[in-house]
Model the fold of this input.
Amino acid sequence: MLSEREVMELNDRIMTHIGLIEKYRVFAGQCPDPQVRDLVARHQQVLQNHYQMMVGLMQNAQNPQGMAAIQAQWRPS
Done:
């Protein structure tokens, strides 16, 4: 079980990743240079993988309050 502080810190990191994933998605969609677009898309995928791992940690810790707050705010595209 995660402590309350760990849940708060993990939630903060998850929310940061959500913002970055969305920004990278927009940047990749607007970038005219295919090499830069691919680089941004790869970074977005790394962030998406990290996000999934952190959400998995929250689920494994069986903390429904933390997960409910995260899932209410964002769904991966």
Remarks:
- DSSP finds three helices and no strands in the chain.
- Helices lie at 4-30, 34-60, 64-73.
- The chain has a mean pLDDT of 84.
- The chain has one domain: 6-73.
